[in-house]
Amino acid sequence: MKDVGVLKDSERFYYEPDPFTKKNLCYIPHAGIYHCDQHYIVEREWLDTCHVIIVDEGSLMVRYRGEEKKAPAGSLVLLDCREPHCYYAGTDDLRMRWFHLTGSSSTAYTNMLLKHQGCIFYPQNLTSEIEHCCERIIKNVKQANTSPHTMALYLQRLLTQLAELNSEQEKGNLELLLEDTIQYMEEHLGQSNLSLNQLAEKASLSTHYYLRKFKEAYQVTPHRYLLQLRIRHAKKLLSTTAASIENIGETCGFCNTSHFIHNFRKLENITPLQYRSLWK
């Protein structure tokens, strides 16, 4: 092995695609199973391919797009090698599988994933299906007579699984943002001027996108949800305190008493005073 820090028990594999594969399919020109010591380092300005590294033991340090990060055992590293990049052993005993991939939509997929996820997929986020794809890819690379169509299928499946993983994470992050705005509503429902723009800003989303995603998640608009929160709080005050209708309306964020009575009747089909009488 010519690479610095690569030990003798390491393996490297090469593949020369036929014209059809080179033009139409995603394929792996070279790959490897490496055992490295602390001297292992790769630093490049440019290489016309994308790169996947699976860290099996030890850790790998990655410098990419102005950041330096640690990829622990069990993680997957994804790089577009057309940008400057560097990675090196973070421990003395590093074991990893790697492959370059090119062709078809590999570059577009890679850069989409880099944009939304970053260059490291950590172990807690990876699925058994992703690990299975990686195993099959390395196994097929070692077999000289592997069908290029089978290899392309596994590569496409791996990229798809990573993209779906990213979608699930985005969904989870969005749910947390929406939940944060609901908590904000609960804490500020007494503010009569609490607006949709404020809630969208709280979530760091555009007003239109926030409105659409909130409605998809809760089947009502943010305005309706806030109104329901206010009426629910008003019902609690009506049944447990002797506060006046005017005071309760103000406490719950209604701009005036008539506005409070109108909305209470709209949701409950009775007035606040009638509701209170039910609890006497």
Describe this structure as you would to a colleague.
The chain has 10 helices and 10 strands. By secondary structure, the chain is of the alpha+beta class. It has 2 domains: 11-167, Jelly Rolls (Sandwich); 189-279, Arc Repressor Mutant, subunit A, CATH 1.10.10. The chain has a 6-stranded antiparallel β-sheet with strand order 1-2-9-4-7-10. A hairpin with a 2-residue loop joins strand 5 (59-64) and strand 6. Helix 7 crosses helix 10 and helix 8 packs across helix 9. The model has no long low-confidence stretch (mean pLDDT 92). This is AraC-like ligand binding domain-containing protein.
Name of the CATH architecture of the largest domain: Sandwich
The major pleated sheet works out as: 6 strands, antiparallel
Give the topology string: H per helix, E per strand. Answer: EHEEEEEEEEHEHHHHHHHH
Q: So what's the CATH class of the largest domain?
A: Mainly Beta
Protein name: AraC-like ligand binding domain-containing protein
Pfam families: AraC_binding, HTH_18
Domain HTH araC/xylS-type: 179-278
Organism: Faecalicatena contorta
